[in-house]
Amino acid sequence: MVIVHVSAECYPMAKAGGLGDVVGALPKYQKNIGEEAMVVMPMYRTLFLEQNDWDVHFKGNAHLGNWYFDFTIIKESTGKLGYDLFLVDIHGLLDRPKIYGYPDDPDRFIGFQVAVITWLAQWKKLPNVVHCHDHQAGLIPFMMKHCSDFKKLQAVKTVVSIHNAQYQGIMGWDKSILIPKWDELKRGLLDWNNNINPLAAAVKCADKITTVSHSYLQQLKYQSNGLEKLFEAEQAKSVGILNGIDVDIWNPATDPMIECHYDSSNVAIEKQKNKKALCVKYNLDFNKPLIVFIGRLVGEKAADILPSALQHALDKTNCGANFFIIGAGDTAIESALNYLVQLYPGNYNTFIGYEEKIGHEAYASADFLLMPSRIEPCGLNQLYALRYGTIPMVRDTGGLHDTVVDMGDTDGFGIKFLNASEEDIVYSVERAIVVYKDKKQMNKMIQLAMQIDHSWESVVKEYKQVYESIL
Ligand code: GLC
């Protein structure tokens, strides 16, 4: 089976969040079970682009409205990722340092998608499945079915995976001229509330929809930023598949980004050494529980309530725990979080920004990982935390609901709370402080956590079933 993944992100080429991790790992594990999986994404100007060798694979031309452009598809030349990675180079449009955040993003991603299917339509033997991820690849199912230029691809099956339905790529109808000649009778497939909505179009046109956890699939029917009715209507072709993690990269026994390696047999000693080093480096108190937050500093992750919640927790518990915050995002949240550093020296610190290495070090050092997310389609950080013996403290939503069992329940290994609120966070911190002192219980939870298998091996079989159901 030949599967082409189309995505705006793929680690290590470019990653803004979990989407990059998933698209970077899934094809590798699909290849392990004998499928021919590959990834195509935009050629941004990233470090990975500069530091690797590329072969020119295809040269073509296409147009966005009346702008005619040439594009080049290049391919990573060594195959070291475990699958073929193709990049679409559209000079002036895609070759920029950032993934998102330009005023012409709608044009950029339409141009990307048009180039991808222009290329696919030239293949001698067409792929079996085009697997699109999120709205940046969401117009592809529509264009493959309803644009006359791509008639050759009409019968090729499409799957759309939804990693985050908050972002839909909404644009005005004036942009419709950018989509290559399409069947006017099909206008309704592009439309949602009088706008072009690429995510809605994807849900309407794809042969199959997947969401990154089971609970998120249910949740979309009552909380999906305006698309609730659509998800309700299309539920028959939708399925939830929980994400896996790349256990080669996320392995505390071999992780090159951490200092002291460990597995479940020596976690108690070795993890503490990592914690000590991190506490020294960031002026934190080694003897207290270390609670980290790693993530984008945005409302969706409830980062806006962190400053007041953590201040309240530190005051109420008389600094009974340490906090270390890693992330970037909303500048107001960043400065509110930074402000606390001077108020609680020795018990609180931040790293504003994100570097892969600091993330790995934090998982390998922390006692707890806090994820109060308002919305969490799957969440990978709690899965990384489990593998590194770090106890997740999570809001009971989406993928967090599906992957964490509260310590009050049989064989529980985490702390769960209902609301993304200050009170619930403070209460959870108090619970963490209590359980941290109970070494026996803490060790039991760490052992349970480290045993859980979230590797891609079983997940890829579920995707295979999805493909088989439409072929
Ligand atoms: C998005 C979601 C996150 C999910 C990830 C990978 O970043 O917000 O919950 O884990 O995609 O699917």
Defining key terms:
471 residues, alpha/beta, Rossmann fold, 2 domains, 6-stranded parallel β-sheet, 17 helices, 37% helix, binds alpha-D-glucopyranose
Q: How are the secondary structure elements laid out?
A:
Blueprint (H helix, E strand, L loop, with lengths): L1 E5 L11 H15 L3 E7 L4 H5 L2 E11 L2 E10 L7 E6 L15 H16 L8 E5 L6 H7 L10 E6 L24 H4 E2 L2 E2 L1 H8 L2 E4 L2 H6 L8 H6 L4 E3 L26 H15 L8 E5 L11 H11 L5 E6 L3 H13 L4 E5 L3 H10 L2 E4 L9 H7 L3 E5 L2 H6 L11 E3 L4 H16 L1 H13 L4 H15 L1
Parallel strand pairs: 1-2, 1-6, 2-5, 6-7, 7-10, 10-11, 12-13, 12-15, 13-14, 15-16, 16-17
Antiparallel strand pairs: 3-4, 4-5, 8-9
Helix pairs in contact: 1-17, 4-6, 9-12, 10-15
The site of alpha-D-glucopyranose has 14 residues, from helix 1.
Report on the architecture of this protein.
It is a single chain. With 471 residues, the chain is α/β, with parallel strands linked by helices. It folds into 2 domains: 2-245 and 456-470, Glycogen Phosphorylase B (Rossmann fold); 267-450, Glycogen Phosphorylase B (Rossmann fold). It has helices at 18-32, 47-51, 105-120, 140-146, 187-190, 198-205, 214-219, 228-233, 267-281, 306-316, 331-343, 356-365, 381-387, 398-403, 422-437, 439-451, 456-470; strands at 2-6, 36-42, 54-64, 67-76, 84-89, 129-133, 157-162, 191-192, 195-196, 208-211, 238-240, 290-294, 322-327, 348-352, 368-371, 391-395, 415-417. The strands form 3 sheets. A 9-stranded mixed beta sheet has the order 3-4-5-2-1-6-7-10-11, with helices on both faces. β16 (391-395), α14 and β17 (415-417) form a beta-alpha-beta unit. α4 (140-146) crosses α6 (198-205) and α9 (267-281) packs across α12 (356-365). The protein is globular and about 65 Å long. The mean pLDDT is 98. The protein binds alpha-D-glucopyranose. Alpha-D-glucopyranose (GLC) binds at residues 17-19, 22, 163-164, 212, 243, 376-380, 399. Alpha-D-glucopyranose is lined by residues 17-19, 22, 163-164, 212, 243, 376-380, 399.
